[in-house]
Amino acid sequence: MTDTTPTTLAQDTTAVIANDPTWWRQAAVYQIYPRSFADANGDGIGDVRGITSRIPYLAELGVDAVWLSPFYPSALADGGYDVDDYRDVDPKLGTLADFDEMVAALHAAGIRLIVDIVPNHSSNRHRWFQEALASPKGSAARERYIFRDGEGPDGTEPPSDWQAMFGGSAWEPVGDGQFYLHLFAPEQPDFNWANREVRDDFLTTLRFWADRGVDGFRVDVAHALAKDLTYPLRSHAELEELRLVTDGSHPLWDREELDEIYAEWRAVFDEYDPPRIAVAEAWVEPERRYRYALPTSLGQAFNFDLLRANFDAAEFRAIIDHNLESVTVTGSSNTWVFSNHDVVRHATRYGLADDPGDEGVVGNEWLLHGGPASELDAARGLRRARAATLLMLALPGSAYLYQGEELGLPEVADIPDADRQDPTFFRSPGIEVGRDGCRVPLPWASTGSSFGFGDDGAHLPQPGWWGEFSVEAENADPDSTLSMYRRALALRHELQDAEGLLWRDHPAGADVLWFARPGGWQSVTNFGSEPVDLPEGEVLVTSAPLVDGRLPGATTAWLR
After folding, report:
1. Where is 199: in which H helix or E strand?
2. Tell me: the pLDDT tens digits for 161-176?
3. Is-contact 292 262, C-beta < 8 A?
4. pTM for this structure?
5. pLDDT of residue 244
6. Angle at CA 324, nearest 5°, toward 333 and 398?
7. Helix axis angle, 196-211 relative to 258-269, nearest 10°?
8. Per residue, what are the HEC states of 280-333?
């Protein structure tokens, strides 16, 4: 793995960021999917220098931190989550020197950096895995991954009937009677986290990036590292029956051994001043999520509950109450999110029928049917998305925003099959369309070959109407979604005080969520269809214009 000393530039400008160990508790964090954000060299792929060139935009937007999706060397079998080298930058995206310059520029602008770390699996091009393939059964090289002998009379059957998350068998033969485990794509062999060498190497990786000025880590599939592969292996059907267990006994997910792994990570984070932070992507039952957010563990865990919810006042209030209660156990803060690189953008979800669908995320069935315009109310979707986001930005805790949502970008549903890149599309025909529709490169300009993304097209096709949602088109419009985000984020910095909220009853009833925050400001959201009266106070920002001084349906207002 590459081990290059960070440049003086990155080290010196770290001091620009205030030494505040609690900065993350109520931060607004902006997720960048690097290959689709900005292309500086005109090859159609977003890159590190492209991100650096757009830091003034991020500063004007008003975010506190950037979360950078994988930028490591990768064959892109899974959008960069198949990592060849955990301590380098993909040459197609830049160099370590480019990375250091980006960190320095972010810190100079008062923006911290969180990077994705992918500990469950490497790529099949990782030097360790190539060494394992070249080594015999039982070798130390193979012990870094999960290899098992085949079954059946001639050993050609996989060790179990487990299915990978992206479709097909979770076991891949290597030609010598053994198979390796991959819970995701075949190009993503799972590490053996019972192996001390694997654990130590990741501790080295955490220090490598922390030494370069990285402020924190987003931990991919944090609930998957520890596994019980005691023979006989359980069947796929048995694993499905155990999917909702909450005692840490599932063979593959959310096991108790993770506490020990992440305690070692926490010790590394605490070597720094201020301590580095981490947030877990852990798709677990709500009553298990707290373990990842403990101060002895990663410290924070994603809460995807609002992302899965319908636009419904009762659902929103129940979710908010539950999560506010849960953080009292850990001492952490909440993480609110509506969109990311894995789900249909919420401006589109809210324009579809209120049906959670598979895994509780609206939009999958619509995409499978080709994204028919007749089933989408785009105006309603954007209106609801703006209202939901403004409510979310008023909540105590961290707000995680996905690139382009500040423009109101919808999902791109009609990407030609030949242009798709997501492995879920190819491995799950007729079941999953994949995630390319939320990863289409951003429109910075109203016209041009890639709408300002770069000088020579984009790696995923952008629709002809993309320019309507561009930064250029929305920049000077005071009513644009971009203007609303800028205004709300600026006010959030001004108004944010102690964590907590106080619910208030609105005369219009249960369709209105009204709460007050410490410091004297309040948020009111009308989930109904008819306008309602606003409480007394100065209106600071609204997600849609008031109607004769009243709050219309699907609208949020902040007051003080």
Report:
1. helix 196-211
2. 999 998 899 999 999 9
3. yes
4. 0.94
5. 82
6. 35
7. 30
8. ECCCCCHHHHHHHHCCCCCCCECCCHHHHCCCCHHHHHHHHHHHHHHHHHHCCC
Backbone angles phi, psi at 473, to 5 degrees: -70, -35
Structure tokens at 498: 């102690």
Residue appearing with tokens 């242009």: 419
Tens digits of residue pLDDT in 8-51: 333 444 446 778 999 999 999 999 999 999 999 999 999 999 99
Angle, nearest 10°, between helix axes 258-269 and 286-293? 40
Q: Is the link from the previous residue into 410 a cis peptide, with omega within 30 of 0?
A: no
Q: Which two tokens stand for residue 312?
A: 């419904």
Contacts with 158 (C-beta within 8 Å, 6 or more apart), sequence order: 150, 151, 169, 170, 171, 173, 179
Q: What angle do CA 102, 66, 443 make, to 5 degrees?
A: 85
Contact 289, 301 (CB under 8 A): yes
Specify the pLDDT at position 434: 87
Give DSSP secondary structure letters for 130-141: HHHHTS-TT-HH
pLDDT at 121 over 60: yes
* CA distance between the termini of the chain: 53
* Angle, CA of 339, 475 and 342, to the nearest 5°: 15
Alpha carbon 217 to its chain centroid, in Å, reads 11
Q: Mind giving me the DSSP string for 349-382?
A: HTTS-S---GGG-TTHHHHHTT--GGG--HHHHH
Contact in structure between 366 and 358 (CB atoms under 8 Å): no
Reported as a pLDDT band with limits 50, 70 and 90, residue 428 is: confident
| Tokens (6 digits) for 335 | 């993480």
Task: Give the separation between CA 64 and CA 87, rounded to whole angstroms.
Answer: 25
- Reference 408, options 374, 376, 443; nearest CA is 443
Q: pLDDT at position 16, please?
A: 63
For 197, the 3-state DSSP assignment is helix
pLDDT category, 431, cuts 50, 70, 90? confident
Say if residues 346 and 337 touch (Cβ distance below 8 Å): no
Active-site amino acid positions: 220, 271
What is the per-residue pLDDT for 357? 41
Q: DSSP assignment of 18-52, as one string? A: ---TTGGGG-EEEEE-GGGT--SSSSSS--HHHHH
| Inter-residue contact 337 to 403 (CB < 8 Å) | no
The answer to whether the Cα torsion of 356, 361, 367, 373 is positive or negative is: positive
DSSP state of 462: P
Res 194: pLDDT: 98
Between CA 220 and CA 340 the distance in angstroms is 13
CA-based torsion, 220, 370, 310, 506: positive or negative? positive
Task: Determine how many CB atoms are found less than 10 A away from the CB of residue 196.
Answer: 9
Instruction: Spell out the residues 6+ positions from residue 110 whose beta carbon is closer than 8 angstroms to its own.
Output: 16, 17, 59, 64
Structure-token pair, residue 58? 């991020």
